[in-house]
């Protein structure tokens, strides 16, 4: 068994982030999808949730693009980064993560 705070991965943009940095925060970990019937509204809601608390030192909502969740995250990390930019997402957006099995692993860069 592992805790979320033990997880480290690359954020889109190239640097590593250890989720332990969020210890003590109200942290809503958000699964995001780039090809889903509700992608646009969900990204808008994510930004709307984040915006009022962006300056808070006790709230964060990192995005975790999960694959293969119903094949809704088929794009590359570069495509996810562009989609995030198009929707004004400024929170930590991690590289695409594979969720098969008992561990989370990066699905690769791109």
UniProtKB/TrEMBL annotation:
PROSITE patterns assigned: GLUTATHIONE_PEROXID_3 (PS51355)
Family: Belongs to the glutathione peroxidase family.
Pfam families documented for this protein: GSHPx
Self-association state and partner proteins as the record states: Monomer. Has a tendency to form higher mass oligomers. Interacts with FUNDC1; this interaction promotes GPX4 recruitment into mitochondria through TOM/TIM complex where it is degraded by mitophagy.
Protein name stated in the entry: phospholipid-hydroperoxide glutathione peroxidase
InterPro entries: Glutathione_peroxidase, Thioredoxin-like_sf
Entry keyword set: Oxidoreductase, Peroxidase
Substrates-to-products reaction catalysed: (13S)-hydroperoxy-(9Z,11E)-octadecadienoate + 2 glutathione = (13S)-hydroxy-(9Z,11E)-octadecadienoate + glutathione disulfide + H2O; a hydroperoxy polyunsaturated fatty acid + 2 glutathione = a hydroxy polyunsaturated fatty acid + glutathione disulfide + H2O
Enzyme category, top tier: oxidoreductase
EC number: 1.11.1.12
